[in-house]
Automatic annotation (TrEMBL):
Keywords for this protein: Amino-acid biosynthesis, Histidine biosynthesis, Hydrolase, Magnesium, Metal-binding
Organism: Shinella kummerowiae
SUPFAM superfamilies associated with the record: Carbohydrate phosphatase
Pfam families reported in the protein's UniProt record: Inositol_P (PF00459)
EC supergroup of this enzyme: hydrolase
Catalysed conversion reaction: L-histidinol phosphate + H2O = L-histidinol + phosphate
InterPro entries xref list: His_9_proposed, Inositol_monoP_metal-BS, Inositol_monophosphatase-like
Family recorded in the similarity comment: Belongs to the inositol monophosphatase superfamily.
EC number, as in UniProt: 3.1.3.15
Database matches in PANTHER family: INOSITOL MONOPHOSPHATASE, INOSITOL-1-MONOPHOSPHATASE-RELATED
Name of the protein: Histidinol-phosphatase
Names of the cofactor(s): Mg(2+)
Binding-site residues, Mg(2+): E67, D83, I85, D86, D210
Originating gene: hisN
MF annotations from Gene Ontology: histidinol-phosphatase activity; inositol monophosphate 1-phosphatase activity; metal ion binding
């Protein structure tokens, strides 16, 4: 099933109308957790409501899974997976590395996805015919880098604190082998991977709504995304995204103890 780029732009538009006016403005931040801190804002909730309404109107037979309001139509062949503001911590800190993530699964496989960052004015999307960029630099078809040696690679993760001790040790092994590592990038790192700016993203503890939209964006640009076992990434958990299969295999071997 092909989704038109115009529909991705429409999703980005309704999301921006809800999220952007609330960015860098004082507002209530709720904590989802009894212990710890997992913030949610009015912008998260209202953005997801707007996206759900658009999907229901356009594809009433499709299901939806969203971070804030859960699942509906979970038995449908096509499921839209929505993270209204991926990087809420960045959002509430005024850092424009958050984004709206919307992906589409068909029979469990991620086939289309978009990331919109309205403050910067960038849109990344993949709808079955490559990965595309629209923003201040105009329009472009994206492709990943050809880096195959870890010693030449740039690695991103949101923060090393997301890793439990065993996986933190594995991440540290990989970080010691790459040329450069950067933190605090949220979903934007995956976009930069698809755009050929970095080479690896490694994370853990992800939910499906954190990754489904990003899989097609990376894969249709030439990259590879799996879990830490080398299996499908649609279910979340530990994720490794790489610019190509050779670099992926080398990074995965390090993470697995090689």
């Amino acid at each position: 099933m092909l989704i038109s780029p115009d529909f991705m732009r429409r999703i980005a538009g309704v999301a921006a109308r809800e999220a952007l006016p609330r960015f860098r403005l004082p507002g209530l931040v709720s904590n989802k957790l009894v212990s710890g801190f997992d913030p949610v804002t009015e912008a998260d909730r209202e953005t997801e409501k707007a996206i759900r309404a658009l999907i229901r109107a356009e594809f009433p037979e499709h299901g939806i899974l969203g971070e804030e309001f859960g699942a509906e139509g979970a038995d449908a062949r096509h499921i839209w997976v929505v993270d209204p503001i991926d990087g809420t911590r960045s959002f509430i800190s005024g850092i424009p590395l958050w984004g709206t993530l919307v992906g589409l699964k068909q029979d469990g496989d991620a086939i289309a996805g978009m990331v919109a960052q309205p403050f910067i004015g960038e849109l990344f999307y993949a709808t079955g015919e490559g990965t595309h960029y629209e923003g201040p630099h105009g329009k472009a078809r994206l492709s990943t880098r050809a880096t195959t040696d870890l010693s030449e690679a740039t690695l991103c993760t949101t923060t090393p604190s997301i890793f439990e001790p065993e996986r933190r040790a594995a991440f540290d092994r990989l970080e010691r082998q790459v040329r450069l590592s950067r933190y605090g990038t949220d979903c934007y790192a995956y976009c930069m991977l698809a755009a050929g700016q970095i080479d690896l993203v490694v994370e853990a503890g992800l939910q499906p709504y954190d990754i489904v939209a990003l899989i097609p964006i990376i894969e249709q640009a030439g990259g590879m995304v799996t879990d830490w076992d080398g299996g499908p990434a649609e279910g979340g958990g530990g994720i490794i995204a790489a610019a190509n299969s050779t670099l992926h295999a080398r990074a995965l071997a390090v993470l697995q103890g090689g």
